[in-house]
Design brief:
It is found in: Membrane. Residues 75-349 form the Major facilitator superfamily (MFS) profile domain. The protein has helices spanning 3-9, 15-22, 38-53, 69-104, 113-136, 138-158, 162-190, 194-223, 228-248, 266-275, 279-301, 309-334. The protein starts with a helix and ends in a 15-residue tail after the last helix. The chain has 349 residues and is an all-alpha fold. The model is unreliable at 1-38 and 43-63 (pLDDT under 50). It contains twelve helices and no strands. It folds into two domains: 71-255, Up-down Bundle (Growth Hormone, Chain: A); 279-346.
């Protein structure tokens, strides 16, 4: 047994299980078959430091430390492109909106929604998506979100009415929310050190780059072959991202075998959905965000709409739900039950 292997296995007792499972993957560097390098030792030191700060970290939470260049490129490209595609379509819709409005005969009161509904639905469902990903697995949720996003984007291109376009844009936002928390989990589970920093930087950089490309692409396509081709191209790119993700994302990300022989079964995962997720807290927080976003979107269209009864009611209920959420998660903590965002998280320790 090499010194590097000893260093990994001395983190805590479950790590031996995690190390042996990692050796089954050809793209994960087995410590006993490669010469130790300075960079590899530095990454191991990062993992050991992380574990020393959080001694209760389980085996599945220790990063896989993927070092293969092709697998690294696949993961980084996948999480970057999936975020870039969503913002690309936001930019495209913004530029093509006058043409879309004319072609689909969108009423004046609804003209804001094709470009804003996706961000609204994404923000409102992020909490649900993140908690579900914790139970079912980030790789599974990421692949599911990518499949749904491709389908809903294609639906936007095929829409024949304003209602259909707005519906599919909203659903594509839900699909994006399935990908984003899972992408963060995938990065933290797959990389340590500089590779993790690079992956997060690429993921964040994909959003402004995608929006900028969407602005330019929207203008070109609108004046040539039509705005619908922007959605068709994005759907094709999304399918390509799905293929990269299926090949590149390690299945060990969703492996919970270190927690018990039945922890990786779907029965156990569905049981976690019932017992380990604060559905009420997530619902209250999401409802507050949704109502606030709706009210702000309505005001953006016309500041005079702030006097409308629907806008006043939305703002009132949204603000009232904030203290209700704080009280609820506080109650959950006192009773020792799952809380979506524990109040203790904000305490100065």
């Amino acid at each position: 047994m090499s010194a590097t292997t000893v260093r990994l296995q001395t983190l805590s007792s479950p790590e031996a299980v995690a190390t042996s499972s990692l050796r089954r993957s050809s793209w994960i560097r087995p410590a006993s078959t490669r010469e130790p390098s300075l960079q590899h030792d530095r990454e191991l030191d990062d993992a050991i430091s992380l574990h020393s700060l959080h001694p209760t970290t389980s085996a599945r939470e220790i990063p896989f430390a993927i070092t293969d260049a092709s697998r690294t490129a696949a993961i980084v490209a996948s999480v970057t492109l999936v975020t870039a595609i969503s913002t690309l379509l936001n930019g495209l819709t913004t530029v093509a909106l006058p043409t879309i409005t004319t072609e689909l005969q969108i009423p004046h009161s609804m003209q804001l929604w094709p470009s804003s509904i996706q961000a609204l639905t994404t923000g409102c469902t992020l909490l649900f998506s993140g908690t579900i990903a914790d139970a079912l697995g980030s790789r599974f949720m990421y692949l599911a979100g990518t499949v749904l996003q491709a389908g809903f984007i294609l639906g936007c291109g095929l829409a024949r009415s304003s209602a259909q376009l707005i519906l599919f844009r909203g659903l594509s936002g839900v699909a994006v929310s399935l990908c984003l928390p899972s992408a963060v989990s995938i990065i933290t589970s797959s990389f340590i050190g500089k590779r993790r920093d690079m992956a997060f930087a690429a993921m964040g950089g994909g959003q402004p780059v995608g929006f900028s490309v969407g602005l330019a692409l929207g203008g070109v396509l609108t004046d040539t072959i039509g705005w619908r081709w922007g959605f068709y191209i994005a759907a094709i790119l999304n399918i390509a991202v799905l293929g990269i993700a299926i090949w590149g994302l390690p299945k060990e990300i969703d492996d919970r075998s270190a927690e018990g022989p039945e922890s990786s079964t779907w029965r156990h995962k569905l049981g976690r959905l019932r017992t380990e997720i604060d559905w009420v807290g997530a619902g209250v927080a999401s409802a507050s965000l949704a109502l606030l976003s709706y009210a702000f979107a309505a005001i953006t269209g016309s500041t005079a709409d702030i006097r409308e009864p629907s806008t006043i009611a939305s703002l009132t209920v949204a603000i009232a739900l904030i203290p209700a959420f704080i009280l609820w998660v506080g109650r959950q903590e006192r009773l020792g039950r799952p809380a979506i965002i524990p109040n203790s998280l904000w305490r100065n320790r």
